[in-house]
Amino acid sequence: MSDRADMLAAVRDALGRETRVAPGLPAIALAFAxxxxxxxxxxxxxxxxxxxxxxxxxxxxxxxxxxxxRVAAATRMxxxxxxxxxxxxxxxxPALSDCALREWVKGRPETVRSPSAPRxxxxxxxxxxxxxxxxxxxxxxxxRLAGVLxxxxxGSRDVVNGIGVTPPEDDxxxxxxxxxxxxxxxxxxVDAAQIRVGxxxxxxxxAGVVRTDAEREMAExxxxxxxxxxxxxxxxxxxx
Length: 240
Description:
This protein has helices at about 1-15, 45-55, 80-90, 140-150, 175-185, 215-225, and strands at about 30-35, 35-45, 65-70, 100-105, 110-115, 120-125, 130-135, 160, 165, 195-200, 205-210, 230-240. By secondary structure, the chain is α/β, with parallel strands linked by helices.
């Protein structure tokens, strides 16, 4: 019992030293057993969620994390509403126009789109505001794009991106940089031409100039939403 208590204290101390996590720390429940750390609760933003997971994973003795952290939804929605919006976002994305889509309603699959020669499939499930994407796509960039489109739905509390990639691709900092740049270009609330993206060891650095604090924040969140990004350093300046 002492070892478990010491481990939880070490994790909570690590979280408290992360300035963006500390204010929401009381909402994060921690449990530890057999090397597995369970983290549960609702946090304010995707940045807080990922930083909390990163800090906890760095604590010696934490072998595996069961992630049950959820992000506070921008708009509270029923699961069916969220599923409809995710489905529509994927349907309207030109880069995914040739992939088959299915949505799961009350535990049963329903075909949304079935191209004659599909290049990949995506299955959509939503439970308690958590969007799960499964299936298989050609290319990491497509997998990442699908995940961010799901994150952009205002009712989403988390996105579990389980889409496989065939043929398999080796991930890299360059691949992540291209994905982040693509997402910024697709975001109508961000002037991507004014933002530079750098990536080193899965840490994204943003630099440049935008017009408002809201645009600066949205650019950062877009980077956090990208699958495989461990941290975002935001050096973007705001100039009216």
